[in-house]
Write a structure and sequence with these properties.
The protein is mainly α. Helix content is 67%, strand content 0%.
Length: 386
């Protein structure tokens, strides 16, 4: 809940902006800068909220794209869960680790790994497992899996943020979350009611197994989202994403070598569409992984997951056009619930209120002042354009 407005007092010097690109410490254990303060400088409470909503919809479209390409690959059939996401981690590593080395140099880079590498290994493991079980779920279900992932991921994020990061939600935010979850519940129920009747997009097979895989994937997603929000609030974006790609590449590579071997033989490689679908899937993930950390800074992991709920409806639109599915009357009802939940959630707290992380101090003095962070916007005294 946002604290009352307070003006800072004058001092002779203002703490410099610690940009994502320059002057970043080599370890999270490095001393923090003093809290910013100057004549006329605004506090975090007084800065206008950012335009995170539209940005979130771009990420929702990316997720819809990955879900669509996963479904198309499953129809070929081509379903190799770890192999399918391996290329995303390779690209993230090439792009962001290269830039990290450019900024840090080898000595500082190795020092960062020695101090903080274990944190990124945990983050990468959670993320790889979330992707693995999600792709695995698409062997058995399509739209239903996405709904389960959205539903349970929100529950996980809210619980973990409340317990470990001391995030406190306004009552209207909680009501908004519950309304959104209710909308997902309507979608979930409609898919179960209409399965086999030409509605909802259930693929057949062992649907219970698909639901369980989706729930496991959602659990890992919830954990990884909160962990990533914590890390990108304290460290440069390129460092976090680069390390996620670096360690994820090894973890995912090991998994595809151990668990995916039977699928290599059963999957169809000769179909020319496989390469195109894999490329589309990888590019959608690359954009998503590049943009998600900025949204974590602009808002929160809870807002991030709630915003992705609209991906269900983008997915439904694509399902009607690509997979020739039919929507049930409950879908529009669910859509209204989710939109109303969004509105109620926004009433509870401004976007900047969520951008200011409780673990970083009142004016975010313990965090990095990178793109999208509340500290950068506090120090510059203006809203950062997105």
């Amino acid at each position: 809940m946002a604290e009352p407005n307070v003006k800072t007092t004058a001092i002779d010097q203002v703490a410099p902006i610690e940009d994502d690109a320059k002057g970043s410490p080599s370890s999270s254990s490095s001393p923090v800068h003093a809290a910013p303060a100057a004549v006329g400088m605004t506090t975090a409470d007084e800065i206008e909220e950012g335009k995170a909503g539209m940005f979130a919809q771009v990420l929702a479209l990316c997720i819809t794209g990955t879900n669509t390409f996963s479904s198309l690959l499953s129809e070929i059939p081509f379903s190799i869960p770890a192999f399918q996401t391996l290329w995303n981690y390779i690209l993230l590593n090439i792009i962001y680790t290269s830039y990290t080395l450019y900024e840090y140099g080898w000595k500082k880079y190795v020092n960062m790994i020695m101090h903080d590498g274990w944190k990124y290994i945990i983050l990468a493991f959670l993320d790889v497992e979330g992707n693995y079980f999600t792709v695995l779920a698409y062997r058995y279900t399509t739209i239903l899996s996405a709904q389960l992932i959205n539903f349970w991921a929100i529950v996980m994020v809210v619980m973990i943020s409340f317990i470990f990061l001391h995030v406190r939600y306004h009552p209207t935010q909680i009501i908004g979350i519950l309304i959104c979850i209710g909308g997902v519940g309507i979608l979930f129920g409609s898919d179960h009611i209409t399965q086999g009747s030409g509605f909802g997009g259930v693929t057949g097979g062992n649907q219970l197994k698909g639901d369980l895989f989706a729930l496991v994937g959602a659990t890992f997603y919830g954990l990884s989202n909160v962990a990533e929000e914590f890390l990108v609030s304290k460290r440069p974006l390129y460092e976090v994403v680069g390390q996620l790609g670096f360690w994820g590449m090894f973890i995912d590579g090991a998994m595809t070598g151990i668990f995916d071997r039977p699928q290599y033989k059963s999957s169809v490689w000769s179909d020319g569409k496989v390469g195109g679908y894999l490329t589309g899937y990888t590019l959608c993930l690359l954009v998503f992984y590049s943009g998600a950390p900025i949204l974590f800074r602009l808002s929160s992991a809870a807002f991030f997951n709630i915003s992705l709920l609209t991906g269900n409806f983008w997915g439904t639109a694509i399902g009607i056009k690509v997979f020739h599915l039919h929507i049930h009357w409950m879908y529009p009802v669910a859509f209204v619930c989710i939109v109303v939940g969004h509105v109620v959630y926004y009433l509870g707290k401004s976007i900047l209120g969520e951008a200011r992380k409780p673990w970083l101090g009142r004016n975010q003095e313990r965090g990095v002042a990178g793109v999208g962070t509340a500290r950068r916007r506090v120090e510059s005294g203006r809203e950062l354009p997105v």
